[in-house]
Records
---
Amino acid sequence: MNLPRQKSASPADQDSPEDRIGRFATIWSRAIFPSTATSLTRPEFEQHLLPLARGLSEALHAWPFDPAPAHRVGGDLVAAHCTDPDALSRTLGVVDSYLVLYCGALDTGPDLTAEEIRNRCARLQHSLAAGFAQALRERTLAEQEAIARSALSARSAAEKALHVTETRFRAVFEDAAVGIGIADLDGNILEINAALLRMFGGVDHHVRSRKVNEWVHPDDAPQVWRLHAELVRGDREHYRVEKPYYRNDGTVLWTNLTVSLLRDAEGKPQYQLALIEDTTERRLLNLRLRYEATHDALTGLPNRTLFFERLDKAVTAPDRMRFGLCYLDLDGFKAINDSLGHSAGDRMLVEVADRLQSCATASGEMVARLGGDEFVALTTGYESADEVEELAVRILSVLAAPIRIDGRELTVRGSIGVVEGLSGTQSAAEVLRSADITMYRAKAAGGNRFQLADAEADARAITRHGLTTALPAALERGEFFIEYQPLVHLGDGTVHGAEALVRWSHPQHGILGPDRFISLAEHTGLIVPLGRWVLEESVRQARGWQRLHPAHSDGGPLRINVNLSPTQLYHPGLVADTVAVLERTGLDPGALCLEVTESALIGADDDLLKPLRQLADMGVDIALDDFGTGYSNLANLRRLPVSVLKLDRSFTQSMQQHPADPVDLRIVEGIVALAHSLKLAVTVEGVETGAQADQLKELGCDTAQGWYYARPGAPDRIHTLSLADAV
């Protein structure tokens, strides 16, 4: 039965989990009640389904996942007289359409992705159908076995008494819906009914001419013939197994076989009675459901579920077996979807899947699609680690040829992470994580290549991920603090101000510098609140210095330099946040200098420069940090609202030696002259020796900072520093 899916993504948010389960049970009862042979009213029947619905909901969210409750639900339906095949069809339709909708977002169990929830729902349907079929079969077989026993008793009585009993027996025997066969203890077939004859192709002599023990099939379960031998000896009264048979035309007949021992009047074994139910179609249905649950609908490749089964077998195989994994992600696939549409993207994925299958055909190799544009190739049982790299090379090679879609030739590129190892050394999750990390290293290196897994690189990536996820809570817990590095006036050696440098006091990794977490904050967007906190703390500290040491105000306010990231420059609240901080603290705008890297302003348009111009008009100094490392035109300085150039340390490192490189001297001298002609002050970073400081002073630089004067430290050191403190 095809039931319409609701348009909404989920039930009303205000509904409790029990309400959603109740609504699911209502829909279920309305769907199958018309085909149910029960004396209950529909509301009473709905109450009967409610615990079954609750069981399906709990199974959907259980960890570890186990579809067995759905199997029991199928049996309970048969017990409730829902034996019409239409009841099963309608039930599967309801579960498929409404179980995830009403029960997929319950606040219980582990966090699961939508894809995992849908996979679980599919497996629950499969288990429910199997439970229904098994219960219905057992019910039918129980009835048929009773009928068959009655028929045999009737046959014995007919031989001794009335001809009418023989007639009744024949009617039951011949018209039974299941196949019935009677054989002696040597396996000679004595009687078969029409149903059994039809199962084996309708040729009577082909069935009767063979003994029972000749019906051997390679897929027989190991215990089949052991149970049969016990029954013939009289040690067992009956047994039930699933058994395949070969028909006369070579096709396979799958059955549920029940064999019972018939004894004579003295209790001695005399005959064996077989009841055979044809389950071929049901088995094919189960196989199809299994296939659909373990294969990607678009490409036909094994999906994530089947891949993890194979990977888990590979990494847990005995005898330290080799395995290799190639994790492929297409480069720039999003652009295909965005520009040509998802239909073109799907056709590209199908073509990629076909090509991957063509290059992974050896024994022990499989290709799967994990989702989106991510594919994996798994290989096992090879002899040399080089074979895994060769597989990666083959994958890149088959992707090299353009794909033609809608008259366009599209170039396919991919990044591959390669993991190679021995079973028993890593779990499946660890192998996939390593391959994923390695794939992103290949992508970061330019793509269209493969990279081999590296334990140290994996550890760095895992640490980086851990820091990324810990950043928001770290800001809330107050784990960040600020150190200050003095800015010294080269003319008289006095402290001119300080640069605020944020640090992270991490509970596990200790004190982390900005190089460890600023890029992560940029990537996650946390740089905006973190930068706002650094600005407010630094400005408040500068105002505190002025209150504690008013004498310094004779030479102007002690300045504070605060770094701005590119993301902060684009944030619309930059000007408002800065003005609010200055007003709250009472710091004069002239005592604040915002440092912006040269690379952030390369090619900046007027919209980006507008906030900086507004701040500059208020009196806030703007410093161009790391000057000389970018590619900006020197003439471009005239349009930038900057008042300070911070010369990158790469220009002055040679001045730590004597004599200094004359080329560097001329470059610095030229930059200083240009800056002063544009009325810009020049600050030099990375001053580490007295000779370097003297040389920079002679060249006309205005201020400097570096370990020669002081390392970054606590705020109370700023007013105690002098040249004697230099390191």
---
Amino acid sequence: MSRDHVQSAERPAVGAEAPFLELLARGASADAYEQPVLLARAEGRSAERVAALEQAKQLALRVRSEMEGRRRREAELSALFETAHDLAGLRDLDAVLQAIVQRARSLLGTDVAYLSLNDPARGDTYMRVTEGSVAARFQQLRLGMGEGLGGLVAQTARPYVTDDYFKDDRFQHTQTIDTGVRDEGLVAILGVPLMIGPHVIGVLFAADRRARVFEREQIALLGSFAALAAAAIDTANLLTETRSALDRLGRANEIVQDRSAVIERASDVHDRLAELVLRGGGVHDVAAAVSEVLDGTVEFAEAGTTPDPALEASRAEGHAVRSGDDWVAAVTAGGELLGALVLRGQPGLDPVDQRTLERAAMVTSLLLLARRSAAEAEQRVRGELLDDLLDSRDRDPRLLRDRAARLHADLDATHVVLAARLDGTAADADQEAAARRRLWSAASHLAGTRRGLAAARDGGTVLLLPLDPGDTATDLARRTAAHLGTAVHDAVTVGASPPVENLAARPDVVAAAYAEAQRSLEALRLLGRAGDGAATEDFGFLGLLLAGDRDISGFVERTIGQVVAYDERRGTDLLRTVDAYFACGMSPARTKDELHVHVNTVAQRLERVGRLLGDDWQSPARALEIQLALRLHRLSSAAQH
């Protein structure tokens, strides 16, 4: 037979390829290519026509397969190019590794992808990045060298793949690894080594929660991502070493320059401090002047805000004391601790500059004493304004704002009410009264420096302090307890209210917030936490037991309200899934049996719960409160029905 006859036999009849070209153009599924042949047979077309259509179908499927392969290779090359681009502009190693794991999971179409790194110091390997994982135990795995599929990859420096992890006896199974894999529900796992030169530094994995055969092209693709991940880690290590070397050189150069000007600075600071005293400068003026002379940042810190060991050492010795990279000089007067001057980031301070800092601390103490008498009068005025707010007197918002403005306070800002009380035992009534006066004086001084208010009340002291952005009532209570305790040399317990706003228009909220602060104070004392500070929100479910009016619905709303609202809006079943997850020992594999759903459904629901409640929702403390809230919500729902 001639060549022309052969080519003619391989080509379908004219017109037979038309329906298949249309299917190719619109990207139809492979099953759709059977329809033209089946239709021709149903219509009774000739055997030659059916054969031509069958031949055209086979050619079209070959073309479709080739096009799919090219699209897949283009996507793989694009992902590798993007990852290489991220590596070229490396700024955050964690972000680059996360991108590598995400792209590997997406292109291989697996349920989970993760990356482990070796820890030479501990002699084991640990999870560094995961994508698609929902089991907390799996995400925290630490494995001994040579254990599990990853250990086999690390030992041989070759890729390994298993279609069914628990039936594969080529590697060493351990209870720790198997439990983590079972919790995650993994079945098929592919692992490739991360290598820098001849050394294996970790393993990159792709895994499915069902049996699966990984193709050769997929193994090669994951190996390419592993090479990029290893390069990213090596680059980050080199950058860290380079930055450290540059930092050391920079510090050495600064020391050389500082030594040449030390005598000139000592003379300069003496003149500046004398001028400040003569023209009535303030504490922060002293700090600014010393900052310029010492070429650093000098700050005045209230007592209780600096590291206690360094501050007490400076107070006892009468000299500036080093604390890490900082220097602390106590500001004292007649044995009373007024605060400290802190020089930031100057670990190599020479003796001349150290004496300069000490002299500045002495000048600061003189300025503070000179202003104390004027401050005491202002403190009394602050106490009167707070008393009026607590008693809901003087309800005219304009008058309240004017009185606060004269004291440099802003009643329109967000505030916290704090109840403070001494926990020491006085020998007699006179000593107890003296201790209360010291507490009120220290609290008034703190309120004056923080643009707040303070007053003596109910055997203790009440403060109204503004809440800084990003700060919490708990942090403010703890700092206040530490500050007042240091100032009066005794344990001071501080309870805080939730944040309150719009005090000028609603002065009655101050009295309600004070009651909340007193309940927090009493809770601390009942728990034996004398000298500590806390807010209502810190006690969680325990606050329901200690509070006079138990806000059960508020506790449930704060703990799982977002999940309840999501289920109500979307008609989902997240709340029941979380309940079953805890009941099944936090195992997705057992949870799917309890709910009669696929393990991927459980994983997707738990991912959504994590986005609603935060990444730490499975931590022991959060898990306990969530389970209690679930129980209360279930009981409350049953009562309503």
---
Amino acid sequence: MDIQQLKGLIQQMTLEEKIAQLLQLTAHFHEGTDNEGQVTGPMEEMGITEPMVTGSGSVLGLSGAQAVIDVQQSYLKKSRLGIPLMFMADVVHGFKTIFPIPLAIGCSWDLELAEKSAEIAAKESAVSGIHVTFAPMVDLVRDPRWGRVMETTGEDPYLNGLFARAFVRGYQGSNLKEETDRLAACVKHFAAYGAPEGGRDYNTVNMSERQLREQYLPAYKAALDEGCEMVMTSFNTVDGIPATGNEKLMRGILRDEWGFDGVLISDWASIREMIAHGAAEDDREAAYRAIRAGVDIEMMTPCYVRHLPELVESGKVDEALIDEAVLRILRLKDKLGLFENPLRAADPGREKEILLCEEHRRVSYELAAKSSVLLKNDGVLPLRKDARVALIGPFAESNDILGWWSCVGEKEDAAPLASALKERFAGTLAVSEGCGIDSMTPEQLKAALETARSADIVVLALGEESAMSGEGGSRTNIRLPQAQLELAEQLKALGKPMAAVIFNGRPLDLHGIFDEADAVLEAWFPGSEGGAAIADILTGRVNPSGRLTMSFPQSVGQVPVYYNHFNTGRPMDPSKSDERYVSKYIDSPNDPLLPFGFGLSYTSFEYSDLTLSSPEMKADEQITVQVKVTNTGERAGIETVQLYVRDVAGEVVRPLRELKGFERLELQPGESQTATFTLTEEQLRYHHSDLGFASDPGSFRVFVGANSRDTLEASFKLV
């Protein structure tokens, strides 16, 4: 349909029908499911009537091709104007084939593979009846106490923006109507949800507008610049106003300044939550504030359907606001081709062929292998082919490796590390649980010690269970559970070489493991093929190449700790550790245990010959930065060469380092390659105190290296 036809359709709708289009309900409200929509239970509690359900515009959380077909067909029989439903779901890092958690995908630094993972997730979802995914989540994160750090790609705004674009391309393709195996993407959570006080989910966010624009907004903007069709509001306040009712944020920045004319959806019940925030007295006021802010779809609360009719009739809300919202919703349905083909790609036959197919599992494996980060290795890994290995720990035989947001993925489809290692390891392998996630019996410990005594090398498989991170999974203690630390201590006392593999959804305080183990491999929640990928890294079939995109703290007392921080007026000089009146801790280093960009390999790399094409840059010119990288080890490997810049003196204080580019080099033993970067004046711009976006003439320092800490340095001037 063209825009005039859609507007004509709106003119045929009653006010109640329009407002019903703004309502999103879970599947069990609708006929065609096991709990056919009747005005009982949840419907009575919400004040939802059958006509409201009959006219509602979208469904949350239903999947399965036949189930979607049944609901859509039943719905259309009752729809006066034949407007189809949209089906939406949280397809965060895979649908049936589960990929590593997004934080892990970020650690791959592989944008093409990230895009491919989203394309596969879209294909599996679309054939199962889904039209829209609530992804990508691009919230900038600096606090690992927050459980939802697992859903984003890390602490850097530039890198998050690149991944945001890659995910949107993967989900949406280039034409949703023609490419029915794609999904409309929904970037979330707008805005600054990743900065809750104390790392506590849903908590207050409080920052300056300059910081908001400088650090937190760029990744959302990147997703929208890539054509993302939908935006989801965040649960938190922004400058004291809940995001879902924040006119300055939603109307001012998102719509007017950025020109976004797509669909804006509330997060689950976040319109009604304005009452708990203290920003609305009741559902009526919450509906008023949300529609004024430009929220098009209300997820799982009845504020709109119960109160917008009266607000319009009383003149409090202009019906034009309702028409705008409905037009945006209908336009998205049209882009998806739902008016011509309301069943779209839903196909029970293809569904059986596509879900968890061999090709999709192969990509899951590749991404798991590239996402794992070798944090420490004192010569223990890879495992010797003739070694006797004891695999011990609660994750040795656990298939809880998918992560919190695993959609319809099933743990039973994920092979545990033990079974994968048995298939791939030529030496002798003995397995013992050692302890549970957070408990240990004397019998478990005794069995683990007996297993370890007869081994040459101990491999510990430790971590958090999936419910210890994700939404609502905030923690104040981000160490491994005490039972696992005690297991490591007891095994260390045997004097055997020991490697630890950590499965988790956040950066951890690794004390009690990092010092005890001779090698540490960060596996994250690696997805459906994680066991195979980790086994191949341990045995040396795969050379680890992952690099951290979120710093690992020395302890939770450092949090938030991140690489692109300010210098302060009294920076600490590491050579003068006895100085007191400088910005430091008296009981801990300032630096994180492991910095942004860090990761080891089974080979080694050497950086040399850092050169700049000119010592000066004019505004209309650019500088070329080059560095020579040599593989000085004995096996092929991938090195992620990272470029950082510091603006030495700005009108507003600038970070000590900011990532401006990276290049992944695949090098054979003894091979050298030159990494080349281009710096332009545009890359040196930032938000000034008046929120203007410009660069400052003056001195700049350039850093190139393997991570944000270990770099070569040069300088130039912007004139």
